[in-house]
Amino acid sequence: MRGAVLLILSLGLCSICPIIAAENAVSEDIESSLDYLDGSGVTIAVADTGIDMDHSCFRDTINETGAPSENHRKIVHLNDTIDGWDNQGHQQFRHGTHIAGILACDPLDGDENMKSMSSGAKLVVQDIVDSSGWAVPEDVTELLYESSKYGAVINSWSWGDNTINYTNRSEMIDAWTIENPWSLVFVAPGNTGNTVLEPANAYNVVSVVASDSEENGSLWPGNSHGPDVNGRRGVFVSSPGMAVLSANADGDKFTLNNGSREMTGTSMATPMAASFTSLLQQLVQDEYGFTPSAPLLRAMLASSAEGIDSNVPNFMQGYGRPSLSGFENSYFIHDSYMVENWTSLIHTRGSNLSDLIANPWNGDGASGPFLSENQSWSKMFAPSPGEDIEVVMSYNARPGNYEIDDLRLVLHTSDGRFAVDDKIGNSGYSVLYHDSFGGPLSKNSSNETTVMIRIPASQLENLEWVKIEVIANDIFDGKNVGFLGIEGTKLGFGLVATGVQELVQNTAPIITVLEGPSGGENYTENLSIKVQIVDGEGDGYVAAIRLNNTNYSIDLSDCAISFVVSQVFTCEISISQDLIPMPVNREDWRFEVVVVDDNSSIWTGPKISTFTSNNFSIWWVSPFLEEPEESSPSVKDSDGERNRVLLWGIIGVIFGAIVAAGVMFRGFEKRALDIVPPPFREKE
């Protein structure tokens, strides 16, 4: 592989690039909840020309270079077996140091403008150049295994061969990444101004072109671009890559230098995108407690991107330039590959690609789902008012000698429409079809493995819900049935959705008795109960209170009330007016409170809450009696069970009336509850 060429002009972090890049992610002028993101807790692997470790960006202390280790400030591991040290006159030596600075520079002294967007990240450094030129390993999966060994998901490669063909190296990357879903390679596509070069044409990589750093930016004219030789977009995202200022190597390992220089090209744009993605990895690790897989990181990266020359993903800009602004508000992520310890899982399977293939994984221990052909996954949401909905799904493809699996992304709306992946018009939004004229799978899919749906807020008004669905339309029938990987029959995915709010199961109203019988009391005249009802959904409810005993029940017509908001109300009972002529002198009286909420959605059912007090006594003496009864209240034993059945029959009738009232509230008088879809609703 000594014919490999450097794909980009040297680029550096210009004096404003770190600021611009940060503004592109999170504006420094506006306080953001994401301002803390700096790549901390993330290890990035960089395979390039080596590194000047005594540079202020990387050395362990102000006065000591330090030895690479997990305790080193910056360098977790240095593999310099190809070239132990470059001489001062070796031009290529400076390339790797510059790129490493873009990825993780946190200068101890010198120009603060060198500071990386991901200044908190650490590095695995792989020197693949000697004094005579590039010496990339014939089997590049050796580099990927080494980076996995030290916990790096993100790999930054600013190099390749001067060919547009899908090469053995491209195939190796795809084979490794479908076996190890925690391996994501960022690749520079070249500086030719023509078709992307290998290995940027591998299916599962992130190919990055260069842009300027202006708010209303433009693409660098030297970018190699798509479509690639496989007919895919070929470019995934754009990132600042013009006049980038970063660390400058001086070729002397003992100087404790702090120099800087500017370089330009896709070689610089690539680590810029990798640096940004480390912020996404940190976000997931900090907020959700797991290391995201490559499919989830790709989905989040695509979702974050903002168009430069168009709002439509295309072969010149990819999805556009990354920005953290899309993750400022509510969003949803799903990662089929979420596991507790991904490095242990990979390393127990073996130390090279052949071992991984020979020891396939069936997905045990991960969140899943892993879909076989004709299976699907779905989740319902409520649109966030006034926001566009954007959904991105990504999955790994098998190597080029296999057909690309077909996972379809579909969005259904509550008014009977749907959108499918990658059907985005010139407006930048997806086409919405009416399901009465066809189904999602009737729409052709692309050969892309990262796909998007984007719906404008204007099309989402008055929608109760949207459903996001992933359908395994066509999955390779491999020999390892029930397993993942090259010869597996199951496939996982990463997904991110913005502009949505999660729906939660409808909860029953909460009943709290503030005043009333606690048990054992004896009432001779009047009695009352004071109740507080809290309806968390705020969609209204109907409440009814009755008096029960072992033999019969008395419905209290004056104590049936409907409310829209949480309420405190009191039910007062006059024994002589409300209970007579029923036999009232008993020791087994109890209050029962029944509350049914009115759910505003037709696709979730009402919830019922009940409260029953402890027993109390009533001993009422008629004023027409000359002498009071001497006996205390007693419980009558006659046909208790039969009357209890009767009681619940009455309760059923009342429930029916209450539910009917709830339906009335919603204006759906003619709808039957037995056609109501599953019990979920919006969290408010």
In DSSP terms, counting alpha (H) and pi (I) runs of 4 or more, how many helices? 10
First-to-last CA distance: 59 Å
Helical content band:
10-25%
Strand content: 25-35%
Give the low-confidence spans.
1-30, 636-648, 657-684
Short description:
With 684 residues, this protein is of the alpha+beta class. It has ten helices and 31 strands.
Task: Explain the overall architecture.
This protein is of the alpha+beta class and 684 residues long. It has three domains: 17-323, 3-Layer(aba) Sandwich (Rossmann fold), CATH 3.40.50.200; 342-504, Jelly Rolls; 510-675, Immunoglobulin-like, CATH 2.60.40.2550. 18% of the residues lie in helices and 25% in strands. It is built from ten helices and 31 strands. Strands 2-3-1-6-7-8-9 form a seven-stranded parallel β-sheet, with helices on both faces. A seven-stranded antiparallel β-sheet has the order 17-16-15-19-13-21-31, with no helix packed on it. Strands 23, 25, 26, 28, 29 and 30 form a six-stranded mixed β-sheet that branches. A hairpin with a 4-residue loop joins strand 25 and strand 26. Helix 2 runs parallel beside helix 5. The chain is elongated, with a radius of gyration of 33 Å. The two termini are 59 Å apart. The model is unreliable at 1-30, 636-648 and 657-684 (pLDDT under 50).
